[in-house]
Each structure stands twice: as C-alpha cells, then as structure tokens.
Design a protein that fits this description.
This protein is α+β, with helices and mostly antiparallel strands. It has one domain: Nuclear Transport Factor 2, Chain: A. It is 45% helix and 27% strand. It has a four-stranded antiparallel β-sheet with strand order 1-2-3-4. Strand 1 and strand 2 form a beta hairpin.
Length: 128
C-alpha cells in the first residue's frame, strides 16, 4: 500500500511531456524563417520560441494560430506545403533586420522586423 503513492508519482512524471527546446537562431534570417515556417506548419510552440515575448507578438501569434485552426483539412495542408519566398532583406544595423517575404500560395507581400535582444534573434513585428 505504501508503494501506491510512489507508483502514481512515477506514472505522472513519466506521462508528462517536457517542454520542447528549440535552438536559438544564429542570425536574423534564421529567426525570421523559423518563425514563418513554424506558423505554416502549425507548430505555434516553435513559432513562439522565435518571437519576442511582447504583447503584440503574442497577439499576432495567437491570431495566426486561431486562423490556422479554423481552416479545414485542405486549407491546413495548403499552408504546410507552401514555400516561403524571401523578397528582400535589409539590415538596419547590427541588431535590427527587416525581411520582406511572401508565401507561394497567395503571393501577398508581408514584412518581419527581427531584432537581437539579450543575445537572441527574435521576430518583434509582423506586417501583413
């Protein structure tokens, strides 16, 4: 009977999923690409890892996830199969980069602002 609490604790620990760890982006382009690609793949945990923890980015990522989840099976499949087309990259300075891109599925121009904060490259703004 004394083994039951220990067994339950071991089962609980064994069944929990540890948080995923994503390697930090080594440059601004990698951070932007990882964020956009994660959104296209529906991996919003990964997208959050490459986004700044500002309210604006949390809201944008949450809205993107909501829109993605509202798509039907075919719509999500189209997103997962889409390619990222980088139209231009502009380094504002050594800590700020702007990336213009579009998806192969809709050709709508979008823009990311990427910033190096506390030694990490993160997406700080998305303009659609």
């Amino acid at each position: 009977m004394k083994c039951t609490p220990i067994l339950l604790l071991a089962l609980l620990i064994g069944c929990t999923n540890p948080p995923k760890s994503f390697p930090p982006a080594t440059n601004s382009i990698e951070a932007g690409r990882n964020y956009v690609e994660a959104c296209l793949q529906g991996d919003f945990e990964k997208a959050t890892a490459y986004a700044a923890s500002t309210q604006t980015m949390k809201l944008h990522t949450a809205n993107t996830e909501k829109n993605y989840r509202n798509l039907d099976k075919e719509g999500r499949s189209n997103f997962r199969q889409a390619s990222i087309i980088i139209l231009g990259i502009s380094d504002q300075d050594s800590l700020h980069t702007q990336m213009n891109y579009q998806f192969s599925m809709d050709k709508k121009t979008r823009q990311l602002e990427i910033e190096k904060t506390n030694g990490k490259w993160l997406v700080v703004s998305v303009k659609e």
